[in-house]
């Protein structure tokens, strides 16, 4: 890594790694981040920030003002861990069974804390910076909960920024793009009901398993046959639950899954086609279907001006050739999207591949049971946030 990390932040690397590993050891699920939120609030207060808690239940906002400027921006990190079992065996392994910082939000939290500490000391900006620590990013819409609790009405800010570590890129590289960068995520449940009965007398039943099997097969044709090939879309069936006995035809099957898209019209088209297929195929098998389709996360859409500025800041730190500002959007989703619906802004990927050889971090993607946030990335992430704030709100 040859990036221009601020010396004051490079010096803090070992201390920040300790903070990060402590949070990793004590992971908390969405809306339950009480310990983590307390640590964040206490540290922000100790740096001299004004602290507001209880936004989105466990969300925390730190306010830092300097100079006479009345402009304000928001920088956002996420606090929550995943409901999955960690497979690492190092000293900072999760102490909670089935809860694991498998997405690196422990690192995100510490990088933003590092920037708050730095900027509170350096006072190298003019205006107000809101440090936003949101709960429940992993599927529970904590970003939306903070917005509903008044994040943008209680705290006036002109733009808002997010960051995710990205283990597919080395530390010292960044990737971003204008427009849609991460997909909208919808979820759905289909219940197919028939007439259960004795497995030896199928002619007296209407078999919901056979109907549901046909529905699963037909759902595979929606993306390939009804969506414009130029439009990215994914439809996955991820649950198929039915039956308890060897000799009973169950009267109900529950199917579930997800849909990812960038264009809302494509999502609508998919939903409509799913209803048609589930209903009519079930009917052909003497069954009925009820479809519950829910829009979960909107797409992450980066606004042009803010994206150019973030790419420039990243280039200034990492070097001209280390920032891909036309990266391919990914079909994953991210609830920073709810904040980008309210204010212009930019969400960027920061390389985090590598690792300290502590058994994790190297070579695997987020959400892998062997993942660990790479502490080598901490000073660069904190420098990116600091430099971004200084660029957005230049000291007069
Ligand atoms: Zn995640
Ligand atoms: Zn994440």
Descriptive notes:
By secondary structure, the chain is an alpha/beta fold. 34% of the residues lie in helices and 27% in strands. The chain contains eleven helices and 16 strands. The protein has helices at residues 7-10, 13-25, 34-47, 105-122, 142-148, 151-154, 208-226, 264-284, 304-318, 337-340, 378-392, and strands at 50-55, 59-66, 72-78, 127-134, 159-170, 174-175, 179-182, 184-193, 197-198, 233-242, 248-249, 252-261, 288-297, 300-302, 323-324, 345-353. The strands form four sheets. It has an eight-stranded mixed β-sheet with strand order 1-2-4-3-5-16-6-15, with helices on both faces. Bound molecules: zinc ion (2 copies). One zinc ion binds at residues 103, 105, 137, 164.
Architecture per CATH nomenclature, i.e. the level-2 architecture of the largest domain: 3-Layer(aba) Sandwich
Please report the total strand number as a whole number.
Answer: 16
Q: How do the strands of the widest beta sheet line up side by side?
A: 1-2-4-3-5-16-6-15
How big a fraction of the residues is strand? 25-35%
Helix content: 25-40%
CATH superfamily of the largest domain: Zn peptidases
Average pLDDT reading: 95
For the record, give the distance between the C-alpha atoms at the N and C termini, rounded to a whole number: 32 Å
Radius of gyration: 24 Å
The domain tally reads 2
Q: What is the fold named in CATH at topology level of the largest domain? A: Aminopeptidase
Largest sheet: 8 strands, mixed
Q: Which spans of ≥5 residues are poorly predicted at pLDDT below 50?
A: 356-360
Sheet/helix structural class: alpha/beta
> In CATH, what is the class of the largest domain?
Alpha Beta
- Give the cofactors and ligands: zinc ion
Count of helices? Answer: 11
């Amino acid at each position: 890594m040859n990036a221009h990390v601020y010396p004051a932040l490079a010096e803090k690397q070992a201390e920040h790694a300790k903070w990060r590993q402590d949070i990793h050891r004590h992971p908390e699920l969405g809306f339950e981040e009480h310990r983590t939120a307390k640590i964040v609030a206490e540290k922000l207060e100790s740096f001299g920030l004004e602290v507001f808690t209880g936004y989105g239940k466990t969300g925390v906002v730190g306010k830092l003002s300097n100079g006479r400027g009345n402009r304000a921006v928001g920088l956002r990190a996420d606090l929550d861990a995943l409901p999955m079992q960690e497979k690492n065996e190092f000293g900072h392994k999760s102490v909670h069974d089935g809860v694991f910082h498998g997405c690196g939000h422990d690192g995100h939290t510490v990088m933003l804390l590092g920037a708050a500490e730095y900027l509170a000391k350096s006072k190298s900006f003019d205006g107000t910076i809101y440090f936003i620590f949101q709960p429940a990013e992993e599927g529970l819409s904590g970003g939306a909960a903070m917005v509903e609790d008044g994040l943008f009405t209680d705290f006036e800010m002109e733009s808002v920024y997010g960051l995710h570590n990205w283990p597919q890129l080395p530390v010292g590289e960044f990737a971003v793009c204008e427009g849609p960068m991460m997909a909208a995520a919808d979820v759905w449940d289909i219940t197919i009901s028939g007439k259960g009965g004795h497995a030896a007398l199928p002619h007296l039943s209407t078999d919901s398993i056979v109907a549901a099997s046909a529905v699963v097969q037909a759902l595979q044709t929606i993306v390939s046959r009804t969506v414009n090939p130029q439009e990215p879309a994914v439809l996955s069936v991820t649950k198929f639950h039915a039956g308890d006995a060897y000799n009973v035809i169950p009267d109900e099957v529950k199917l579930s899954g997800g849909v990812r898209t960038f264009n809302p019209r494509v999502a609508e088209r998919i939903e409509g086609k799913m209803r048609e297929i589930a209903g009519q195929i079930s009917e052909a098998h003497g069954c009925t279907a009820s479809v519950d389709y829910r829009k979960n996360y909107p797409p992450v859409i980066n606004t042009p001006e803010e994206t150019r500025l973030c790419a420039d800041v990243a280039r200034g730190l990492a070097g001209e050739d280390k920032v891909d500002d036309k990266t391919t959007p990914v079909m994953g989703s991210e609830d920073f999207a709810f904040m980008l619906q309210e204010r212009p802004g930019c969400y960027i990927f920061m390389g985090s591949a590598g690792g300290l050889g502590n058994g994790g971090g190297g070579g695997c993607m987020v959400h892998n049971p062997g993942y660990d946030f790479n502490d080598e990335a901490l000073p660069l992430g904190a420098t990116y946030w600091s430099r971004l704030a200084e660029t957005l709100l230049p000291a007069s």
